[in-house]
Amino acid sequence: MEPETVPDTSTLIGTALPAAVRARQVNKTYGTGESRVRALRSIDVDIARGQFTAIMGPSGSGKSTLMHCMAALEPVTSGHIWIGRSQITRLKDRKLTQLRRDRIGFIFQAFNLLPTLTAAENITLPMDIARRSPDHVWLQQVVEIVGLTDRLRHRPSQLSGGQQQRVAVARALVARPDIIFGDEPTGNLDSRSGTEILTFLRYSVDALGQTVVLVTHDPTAASHADRVLFMADGSIVDEAHFPTADAVMKRMLRLSAGH
Ligand code: ADP
Ligand code: MG
After folding, report:
1. Number of structural domains found in the chain
2. Is the residue at 126 inside a domain?
């Protein structure tokens, strides 16, 4: 049988910790027969802790599917995924829900705020549901970082798109998750608000040691990352480290042309 946890090597090699996420031979297939789609093909990847990783690729290349599988939002068809030492591909529903709630933060394109709650209530909602009380010093710091101090009593409808996404970023940061996943979180924002969100995420990595994984098709967004993974047809076909927006765009153009 597969071991449920990664062997703890920290005592052997000093302070070494397992990757934030590790995927091995992950396949994901949707549908059957004629409508069968192989969304992920034998994916092997390690996402380092404390790094900002962007996943890029043409539409339909499998970016969202890979993110959803790594974030324990979707089951894989075959293969194994670990978040830290937990092998999520072996966990049952209740444990998965718990792991998502306690160890993962999400930022989606559609901000996913509850309209009847204030900004402050939306920020602490996941922790309230988990019956965890937020660290108030930390909460205040996060609110300041994302510039929402004077908007806390506003409801989402009273906030701009950029402000709503800042609420979603604060909500993700406040629980200090192991990883924050974002699927096109700047996709609905004007470029200035989008840059703000990316700057907060970059800051959370540099200053707070947060691990961030972002799906995007925007080369400028990807240029905020330490590492960019390029996908095509369900596979990771290339990667770049600290790329410029220009370099990312050139790589994307070649991918779109099929090489
Ligand atoms: P991307 O995020 O890169 O645009 P996706 O991961 O959303 O790509 O999709 C990868 C492939 O899987 C596409 O061919 C898409 O049509 C298919 N797909 C994604 N989600 C589903 C689903 N729920 N049911 C059937 N096919 C899906
Ligand atoms: Mg997608």
Report:
1. 1
2. yes
Strand 235-241, strand 227-232: pairing: antiparallel
Range of the domain at 247: 50-72+104-256
**Ligand 1 atom with least separation from CA of 61:** 3
Q: What is the pLDDT of residues 183-217, one digit of tens each?
A: 999 998 999 999 999 999 999 999 989 999 999 98
4-23 as b/e: b if 16+ CB within 10 A: eeeeeeeeeeeeeebbbbbb
For the whole model, what pTM was predicted? 0.91
Q: Is residue 80 part of a domain?
A: no
Write the CATH number for 251. Answer: 3.40.50.300
CB atoms within 10 A of CB 234: 23
Distance 76 CA to ligand 1 centre (A): 13
Residue whose Cα lies nearest atom 23 of ligand 1: it is 30
Residue 242 near ligand 1, beta carbon < 6 Å:
no
User: Could you tell me if residue 88 is inside a domain?
Assistant: no
Question: Which tokens belong to 247?
Answer: 């370099």
Q: Tokens 């924050």 sit at which residue?
A: 180
Q: Specify if 1 maps to a domain.
A: no
